[in-house]
């Protein structure tokens, strides 16, 4: 099974054709999108047409508390879907699909961009909903807007961020509370576990000051049941993904 997680800058109105072509070429079985801005209009017309174009006809659209909506597309029908908005700035989508003889629980998330404390509250809520200790496969992916303590950032990163007015990652020191919370809660950072961790912002088309430094904000997390089935989780950088959004996509392969 192939899954792509992609934060598409505010609905990529100017590069939607490029996004469509890229997804068709990649041919994933599941696609998780963050920032599907405007795709909810006219009874989700854009979202539905996009699914038809890319050959993923099954859609759960997460209407957020903000304009930053989420979506999960699947080649095969979903077993069950839920959209969570309570206690979350945007929203989170939970969708379960068949994976061989097992059930795979997918979570598409876009955490609060404001402060680590705001995201930490969301992470507590999400962990309680995900139930990582369950005897089924759980994968969470998306834009976590958070830094990992296991990533090798330069000593002067905080100084550089503050000089650009970016305080979301800490003011007195870099904060890693959110990703540490997911880890201690039973969700493993797959890319770090496999040695493939790579920065996911910025791209050449970035105009967000929060992405002015090379940061890894896009993750794939797995519980103990799902970790063995993840063959790879790679940030894909090429001439095409340079131009589509301000984030690079994460491409996940499952056995």
UniProtKB/TrEMBL annotation:
Keywords of the record: Endonuclease, Exonuclease, Hydrolase, Nuclease
Domain Endonuclease/exonuclease/phosphatase: 14-247
A Gene Ontology BP annotation from the UniProt entry: GPI anchor biosynthetic process
GO MF annotation: an example: exonuclease activity
Keyword Nuclease: yes
InterPro entries with a match to the protein in the record: Endo/exonu/phosph_ase_sf (IPR036691), Endo/exonuclease/phosphatase (IPR005135), GPI-anchor_lipid_remodeler (IPR051916)
Gene Ontology cellular-component annotations: membrane
Keyword Metal-binding part of the UniProt annotation: no
Gene3D superfamilies: Endonuclease/exonuclease/phosphatase
Protein name, as recorded: Endonuclease/exonuclease/phosphatase family protein
Organism: Kocuria coralli
